[in-house]
Amino acid sequence: MSGPAGPSKQMILHLYHSALRSSRSFSSYNFRNYFIRRTQDTFRSIQAETDPSKVATMYSDAMKELVVLRRSAIVNQLYGGWKLAVEEPAPKDEDILTRSDS
């Protein structure tokens, strides 16, 4: 008798993209980058695992974490602070041209 079938690669990939999307929605630079790295590390470990029962357990844990991640991202968007200097967009070409003319 075989055990329950684990999640398909497509299901894992869909969960990965959902977790990355939620991680990228944090307004705080530090939280955003932390959760992106954490998501990538989590799914690398799922990808490296060969035991189907462990993959199924890791997948269900990742599903639970996604729910928490989404709620946390919403709260962070509501109470996000100031933008950091590293988040400033690069100057546009038009701005560079007007500054050099002065």
Question: What is the SS-derived class?
Answer: mainly alpha
Unreliable stretches (pLDDT < 50, length at least 5) are none
Oligomer: single chain
Number of helices: 4
Question: What fraction of residues sit in β-strands?
Answer: under 5%
The count of domains is 1
**Mean pLDDT, all residues:** 86
Q: Got a strand count?
A: 0
SSE order: HHHH
Determine Rg (CA atoms, Å).
Answer: 20 Å
Q: Describe the largest sheet.
A: none
**Distance between the ends:** 79 Å
Shape: elongated
Helix content: over 70%
Describe what this molecule looks like in 3D.
The longest helix has 27 residues. Helix 1 runs antiparallel to helix 2, helix 1 packs parallel to helix 3 and helix 2 packs antiparallel against helix 3. The chain has one domain. It starts with 8 loop residues before the first helix and ends with a helix. With about 100 residues, the chain is mostly helical. It contains four helices and no strands. The chain is elongated, with a radius of gyration of 20 Å. One of its GO terms (cellular component) is mitochondrion. InterPro entries: Complex1_LYR_dom, Complex1_LYR_LYRM4, ISC_assembly_LYR. This is Complex 1 LYR protein domain-containing protein.
